[in-house]
Amino acid sequence: MNDFTTGESPTYQVSVLELAVIVLGAITLVGVALASLWTEATDNMLNPERAEATARSFVEYEIPGGSEGVLGMTIGAAKLAIVQSRREPPDIVLLVEKNPTDQRPYQRRWRDGQPVHADANLDVDREQASLSFRVASLLGVRVDFPATNSYRQIGNFCGDRVMVTVEEGQHTYDNDANVTVPAVRYVAKRTKDSVEWTATIMTYGKDARAKAKSVFQSIRCK
Who has the most CB within 10 Å: 32, 121, 129, 144? Predict the structure, then answer.
């Protein structure tokens, strides 16, 4: 009598349920890894010191009383940063962006402080800073107020003379709807050498105009 095995390994068939468990487990591991990376990236973006370092990596500025970072983002060659004053509540908020663009460099001629030929790049309003506005709003930073007066003036921004949009109105504090203070917003954009720079400044308080002008004049692009 010959009792022996054939040496063939038994075939094991994976059930649909087992396959589903394996796939779900893999998806869970990937999800956990991505969540961890996202949390780390978010923590870095929202770290005050890192945020201010990001801002100062492409612009210089001076905020009376000192400043602290709110958010700093770098995506390739594009950068975005939000900083604010150290007062509580903050009375100055600065949003700055640097973005590459395929827009051709342009030349402007000036006579007596006025542009001889109008250029579309001078036509700036706050909607062009919509990305910064949306990001700031998501973070709970107050960057909007009902403007009662709006005008444009020529100013020096990053070494060029550009048209600056100025809006004035009243700012209402979240914790007291009955308290309003003067509010001023500056928006300026400069495009040169295929790089677009945008700055938005919000200031609040009785000296809002002076603070906005001071911060705007302090900005230097790198």
Answer: 129
User: How far is the CA of 205 from the CAs of 169, 172, 182, 193, in angstroms?
Assistant: 11, 11, 5, 37
> In the beta sheet, which residues pair with residue 167?
150, 185
Cα–Cα distances (Å) from 130 to 26, 84, 198, in that order, read 39, 18, 11
CA distance 147 to 170: 7
How far is it, in rounded angstroms, from Cα 208 to Cα 173? 15
In angstroms, the CA 29 to CA 4 distance is 45
Nearest to 222 by CA among 51, 75, 47, 53: 53
Query: One digit per residue, pLDDT tens: the chain, 222 residues?
Result: 555 455 554 544 555 554 555 556 566 555 544 444 344 445 567 899 999 999 999 999 999 999 999 989 888 888 999 999 999 889 999 999 998 885 333 334 444 444 444 343 434 444 445 566 666 666 667 667 888 999 999 999 988 999 999 999 998 876 666 778 999 999 999 988 889 999 999 999 999 999 999 999 999 998
Q: How do beta strands 92-100 and 78-85 pair?
A: antiparallel
